[in-house]
Amino acid sequence: MWPNGSSLGPCFRPTNITLEERRLIASPWFSAVFCLVGLASNLLALSVLMGARQGSSHTRSSFLTFLCGLVLTDFMGLLVTGAIVVSQHVALFDWQAVDPGCHLCHFMGVIMVFFGLCPLLLGTTMASERYLGITRPFSRPTTASQRRAWTTVGLVWAAALVLGLLPLLGMGRYTVQYPGSWCFLTLGTEPGDVAFGLLFALLGSLSVGLAFLLNTISVATLCHVYHGQEAAQQRPRDCEVEMMAQLTGIMVVASICWMPLLVFIAQTVLRSPPVMSPTGQLSRATEQQLLIYLRVATWNQILDPWVYILFRRAVIRRLYPRLSAQPRSLSLQPQLTRRPTMQ
């Protein structure tokens, strides 16, 4: 326990920051515009998704359901976390005075982990679905229902929520972070802090790495079919190319936005000598790095909907007109060769 006063909760670490410094760092205008742009982008993507799901095939409908779950997650993440952060930036309230029992801090810590892991886990889930659909077409049902896809999305949400609740059960701690406007996991030396930090970083990195591997195999398979000897009979449909383009874009965005933060967390909790002092204080450079990497990761919630909006068939056809002119079959499943009959 840190020496922060017996009447205060365990989420407060010693910090040396003045009110004037907080005003310079915590801009309410930037935070408000950032959240509004993100919310509008996700709403636009949701409206486009609703139109695209009408009349779509079973395979594409399942993929669009996963995309809808991803966009909904990003939207709710921006809405909930943005409401707390913008309010803090506008009022510049003293977190110790407003939340001495750390209830708000614990809530924000849970949702930060939840809305951080969900896009990564959903990206891996979509990569797995496309991998099976392209490389193992007979190993999955051809009539996968939307209910099944929504059940999978719900399981991903449940898994991320369980992980986010671990610090409340004793594994790790959520603490107020520099400049005093948000809460996140603690980069401390306690065994629980180290274990939870590594679990968060490794699970996120594994999700990105697995999605990269599966998407690489899927894209290679599409290219093989497209340029193979039987390409004229087994051309990938436009929707299959579109889904892989969107999925690859989501993976690239997630890697760029999240990997710096995940690597930083793992390096910090494993560093020797420890970065955090016995009193719970981090160096200003470490706190500033954490804030920068967190802000970069937040861009993932804004860029995800634009990946779907920009990587649609209409846009792909404009960039690559030959795609719509190529003959296409109804499926990537292997064609059965007919043996000549004896006359």
Automatic annotation (TrEMBL):
What coarse category fits the chief subcellular location reported for this protein?
A: membrane
Q: Which residues cross the membrane?
A: 29-51, 63-86, 106-128, 149-174, 194-226, 247-270, 290-311
* Annotated GO MF terms: thromboxane receptor activity
Sorted keywords for this record are:
Cell membrane, Disulfide bond, G-protein coupled receptor, Glycoprotein, Membrane, Phosphoprotein, Receptor, Transducer, Transmembrane, Transmembrane helix
Q: Work out whether the entry's keyword set contains Cell membrane.
A: yes
Q: Where in the cell is it found?
A: Cell membrane
Mention any one GO cellular component term assigned to this protein in its UniProt record: nuclear speck
Describe its membrane topology. Answer: Multi-pass membrane protein
The G-protein coupled receptors family 1 profile domain extends over 41-308
Q: List, alphabetically, the PROSITE patterns matched.
A: G_PROTEIN_RECEP_F1_1 (PS00237), G_PROTEIN_RECEP_F1_2 (PS50262)
Among the GO biological process terms of this entry, one is: positive regulation of smooth muscle contraction
**Which InterPro entries is this protein grouped with?**
GPCR_Rhodpsn, GPCR_Rhodpsn_7TM, Prostanoid_rcpt, Thbox_rcpt
Question: Which family is this sequence assigned to?
Answer: Belongs to the G-protein coupled receptor 1 family.
Q: Know the name of this protein? A: Thromboxane A2 receptor
- Species source reads Camelus dromedarius
